[in-house]
Write a structure and sequence with these properties.
three-stranded mixed beta sheet, 1 helix, mainly beta, about 0% helix
Length: about 425
């Protein structure tokens, strides 16, 4: 599981097309030479409220310019996640007892509590690298790869991007592709979607279940970067993502409601999502460099064939104080609609038979597939030194507010917030230097 998966394709394009006014990143912008490495390191601490997910993520990125626009990049990421993760069932007015994915233990959610699997844990290691060089006048090629491994997930990816400068190098055209293969190995095997959790086989040998599943993703991106003036730069990107294969979360389930009473937790059903997904995204960004300060504003619209549409507005303003000291406030607003097959619970008689057989093709109660609004507010403070090193500290607060309504006035779910809101604290310490 990853809190946020950065696009390797977008990274390759950014490296291939270059970036003006890059002081907004807070990373030391050293003079280009053919000696030494530029090293950017950071440690991220992420903590959700109510003893939910906690993450610690150290990152080290190294860059070396060999001259003649030949640049090598390498990045190492380690994730450690612990805490309690929602299993998909909603809070109820009665206690709910569940079996862990391994089948070896059980846990109980008290009345009014969101069911959380406290056995949740994950550790991920990932390494990526890329190489950029000119291939023609005013044209650059960037190729790279990535390997990521967790105890129940493995991923291998390769990407390539080209960038062409035109219009006296005031315009850059970019295009790229990323190919990714994922291997999912759920604890206890991949369950058969929309079957009762009590019927899960240890190895998932029947039907669509199995000890492991796979997914293949193709991402393509096309972009234009335009210099508007000596102080302003604008970028517009269009991307499309095609995913085929296993996209169900094997650890998520759905409650079944009979009238206004919850069916026995033994008869909850595993979720199931379509095995294909197409996403389209349009991204625009503008940077304006004042005498010293820099403002960075971006907007992204994303839509897919699962019915999810989202809007993201992100803004940063970097204040240069003095002697390399700066402060960068940050604000982000996000809004998304629910997937067509999102359901906070299933109804017996119309969506599930009395025998526990699903009458719907797909269904998920994963809050990430629901409609919600989210905000992120915070700031980063940093100090650049004359030896081309820099330290920084970023503190942000994330707030997610569900838009799922509960119209039930009687029974086991009456008065409950089907998808509780979420808050999280993010703290990141960074250190950059020349080596």
């Amino acid at each position: 599981m990853q809190l946020k998966k950065l696009s390797k394709l977008s990274l390759a394009l950014a490296q291939a097309s270059g970036a003006l006014l890059s002081a907004t990143s807070g990373t030391v912008q050293a003079q280009t030479d053919s000696f030494g490495w530029q090293v950017d390191s950071a440690v991220l601490y992420y903590q959700e409220t109510d003893h939910r997910v906690r993450a610690i993520e150290p990152v080290v990125s190294m860059k070396k310019d060999f001259g003649d626009e030949k640049i090598f990049n390498m990045k190492l990421v380690l994730d450690s996640l612990t805490g309690a993760s929602p299993n998909g069932a909603p809070p109820a007015n009665v206690a709910q007892t569940f079996t862990s994915p391994s089948g070896g233990t059980s846990y109980t959610a008290a009345p009014g509590e969101l069911p959380l699997d406290e056995t949740f844990k994950d550790t991920r290691g990932a390494i990526s690298s890329s190489w950029q060089q000119p291939i023609a006048p005013d044209m650059r090629l960037n190729v790279g790869g990535n390997i990521s491994a967790e105890y129940d997930f493995q991923s291998v990816a390769a990407n390539a991007a080209v960038a062409k400068d035109i219009n006296n190098k005031n315009t850059t055209l970019s295009a790229g592709i990323n190919l990714e293969y994922d291997n999912i190995m759920p604890v206890g095997g991949a369950p058969v979607g929309l079957t009762r959790t009590s019927l899960k086989l240890p190895t998932g040998d029947e039907g669509e279940g199995g000890p492991s599943k796979s997914k293949f993703i193709t991402d393509m991106l096309f972009g234009v970067t335009q210099v508007l003036s000596r102080q302003a730069l604008m970028q517009v990107n269009y991307s499309i993502s095609l995913a085929n294969g296993y996209q169900t979360d094997p650890y998520k389930m759905l409650a079944v409601l009979n009238g206004d009473v919850l069916v026995s937790t033994a008869n909850y059903l595993f979720e199931k999502r379509p095995d294909s997904r197409t996403k389209h995204s349009l991204y625009s960004q503008i940077k304006y460099h004042f005498t010293e300060d820099v403002v960075d504003l971006s907007y992204r619209y994303t839509t897919d064939d699962w019915g999810i549409s989202s809007h993201t507005l992100d803004t940063r303003y970097r204040f240069e104080i003095s002697n390399g000291l700066y402060v960068e406030p940050h604000a982000r607003w996000y809004k998304q609609s629910a997937a067509d097959f999102y359901k906070p619970y299933l109804v017996q008689g119309t969506e599930v038979t009395l025998g526990g057989v699903a009458l719907v093709s797909f269904a998920t109660a994963d809050s990430r597939m629901s409609a919600f609004d989210a905000t992120t507010f915070g700031a980063k403070i940093g100090k650049a030194f004359e030896d081309e090193s820099e330290i920084s500290l970023r503190v942000e607060q994330y707030k997610q507010v569900s838009q799922t309504k509960n119209n039930l006035t009687t029974g086991d779910l009456a008065g409950q917030k089907l998808v509780p809101d979420l808050s999280a604290l993010l703290v990141q310490f960074g250190y950059s230097f020349r080596w």
